[in-house]
Design goal:
With 187 residues, the protein is mainly beta. The chain has one domain: Lipid/polyisoprenoid-binding, YceI-like (Lipocalin), CATH 2.40.128.110. The chain contains two helices and eleven strands. Strands 1, 2, 3, 4, 5, 6, 7, 8, 9, 10 and 11 form an eleven-stranded antiparallel β-sheet that branches. Helix 1 crosses helix 2.
Length: 187
Amino acid sequence: MKVSFYRYMLAAFAAASLTAAGSALAQVDVAKSSVTATSKQMNVPVEGKFGKFSAQLKFDPAKPAEGSAQLNIDVGSYDLGDESYNEQVRGKEWFDAKTYPSATFVSSAIAPAGGNQYKVTGKLTIKGKSQTVVVPVTVTQQGATQTFDGSLPIRRSQFDIGTGEWKDTSVVADDVVIKFHIVAAHK
């Protein structure tokens, strides 16, 4: 049970690290958007989903450098599909959601990477620890709707996710992949 919990916690951490590019004065459609985190527990992938997040996005593919993205994730909303695991993930050894209720990403630069690909640089903060990250993002546009897809590999240990007995990475891997699918429409 503890191994599964750890795995789920790692997935939660990854989801919390979600990073996304933005859309010019866009309204995020949370019902169509998702942020997940996938970790490996005993070498088996485990994915969890964050149920609550908000984003402020501004993006024009003709002027990517003028864009910006801010993402706020409610770490207490992480769902591994089992309430007992969810409770453990909210605890002090994992997200410590009472002390650190949100994980955030704030962009500092957006650069073209060819075609509809962009590199979004910014600060990812989880559990009070910040790291500068570069997130590869694919932007697709249909009419007034922009979709931002990407994944960001992180190490949970850099954010003190999984402390105490969970600090050992032999059961739950240190590597976590945060995946996001953000759908936004121009206001």
